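Good morning C.,

I know you're traveling, so I'll keep this short. The sequence:
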Amino acid sequence: MLTKQNNQNKQNLLPVTALLGGAIIWGLLWYPYRVLEQAEISGSIATAITYFIALLLGLVSFRKDLRMSHIAGGEPYLLLGIALFAGWTNLAYVLGVIHGEVMRVLLLFYLAPLWTIVFSRLLLKEKLSLHGYLVIIVSLAGAITMLWEPESGSLLPSSYGDWMGLSAGFMFALLNVLSRKDQYHNVQSKSVAVWMGVTLTGFIYSLFLPDLSVLSSISMDSYLLLFGLGIIVFVLSVVVQYGVTHVPANRAIIIMLFELVVAAVAAYFLTDEAMTLKSWMGGALIVSASLFSARMNRE
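The tokens, ready to paste straight into the viewer:
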């Protein structure tokens, strides 16, 4: 009996560890992209290359699962939507943390539960509970606290990084709702759609840059870093997907919020960024809203 309980504890510990590890790595992943930007490799090119590597690894690793998903059929427009929204989400996130203040970008990204509730109501016809209304109110209060500029009276994001973080969370919510709506394709097919969408979005965005990076001019050290990031993105996608599949949503979101703690510590030691009291207050409200959304998921 004791052995059976120990095995059960180990089975429960593994997905939690996967999510915690994923949160830690996501909280640090912004820094290598900044290093590549300093090496004159734009965020869009770096994102496209790393996700292209993840895509190749996924096509090789999941070829049997992809074949089965193709045979099963389904609605191809859903995968197309997943690819499109994932492309915007991940590219905007990377560009935001490169050009903006890391913690502000992350906190604006974590407005995603607010947008998720809205899109779930519109696209999935889900009813809004009391906790859903609380998420909306507290999220909006946090966003207003962070973004409001007393001098101008504006509530719009004041920087490129803020816009990128806000739009990344918006598209992330759309991505999540569409993934829930798509019950036809397996996880492997959705993961490949994500990697493909980010790769194409990154390359297309790069074409409009005035100083497009030349692949032949990239140093070997930078290529090694890009290759390492590609492997990390692939493994991280699989690990986090395993975690969210086996951990209740209310626990998963709390664990993933640890990313903010890691990012805050990393930003303190690796950059000279310092958040204002107003940003901390808004951030506290946004995190609280995410915790309310966890309670809503439990219901």
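Safe travels,
E.
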